[in-house]
Design a protein that fits this description.
Mean pLDDT: 96
Order of helices and strands: EHEHEHEHEEHHE
Distance between the termini: 24 Å
Largest sheet: 7 strands, mixed
Strand content: 15-25%
Number of helices: 6
Number of strands: 7
Helix content: 25-40%
Oligomer: single chain
Bound molecules: zinc ion
């Protein structure tokens, strides 16, 4: 356990981009860490690859209406956490593919935001059962290298404020593949819950619907004597 890091793993991070699949992924997977980093002055950008437009068990709702609801909930949650800007790439929920189009969309946002650090799903964890989560993580990693190369999609570089991608650190969440960063989120757990509950369509019964999240965060914290923890696997990139 000697090589484990805590919040200090993000010491030099100034601009963080989080690439997720669905509205509510960021909040439930790493909302506590985001709250702590925003409090430290880190600028955070949120990217959801899909509209979350199948995320209901109700039969009377149509997909465009659900997508609109989920976009509004995403903005409400971003306000709770202090996220600077949210982006949605407009793909359909349950059908995300890590293809060249998605790679280019994500590269563009690396270039526009000038983020120096990335949080995304671990696409290589064998327990990563949701195909959208695997696809978002894979595409986010695949966009890393091309975004730094001037000849890749050069039209992206003419956008206002855009420059070559400058990601320097990558942290994967939703992983049980030797995570090496454990963040104690107990002090901001109320904020994490409030941000998650902003997704009212997903958690209509309030905290009762978040027992699974609390269980995951409790299990993550148990080996290192934290009440609630969020864990990441930091990739070595240069
Ligand atoms: Zn998800």
């Amino acid at each position: 356990m000697n090589d484990l890091a805590g919040l200090e793993a993000f010491a030099n991070v100034k601009r963080l981009i989080v690439v997720a699949a669905h509205p509510d992924d960021l909040e439930t997977m790493c909302g506590g860490t985001i709250a702590l980093l925003v409090a430290q002055g880190v600028t955070v950008f949120s990217v959801n690859c899909t509209l979350g437009d199948i995320g209901t068990q109700e039969s009377g709702i149509v997909r465009p209406a659900l997508a609109a609801t989920r976009l509004a909930e995403t903005d409400d949650a971003a306000q709770v956490l202090g996220i600077k800007q949210t982006y949605n790439l407009g793909h359909h929920d349950g059908e995300l593919e890590p293809n060249l189009e998605l790679r280019a969309q994500i590269s563009r946002l690396y270039r526009i935001t000038q983020a120096d650090a990335l949080f995304t799903f671990d696409p290589y964890w064998t327990g990563q059962i949701h195909p959208d989560h695997r696809a978002a993580g894979q595409a986010a990693l695949d966009a890393y290298m091309p975004s730094k190369m001037p000849l890749y999609r050069p039209e992206q570089l003419s956008e206002n404020g855009a420059g070559l991608g400058c990601l320097q650190k990558i942290f994967l969440f939703s992983t049980d593949r030797q995570p090496n960063v454990f963040v104690d989120v107990n002090s901001v757990y109320g904020t994490k819950i409030a941000a998650a509950l902003a997704h009212r369509s997903q958690f209509p019964k309030g905290e009762e619907n978040l027992e699974w999240m609390k269980t995951l965060d409790t299990l993550a914290g148990a080996p290192i004597n934290m009440t609630y923890a969020e864990r990441f696997k930091q990739l070595d990139v240069w």
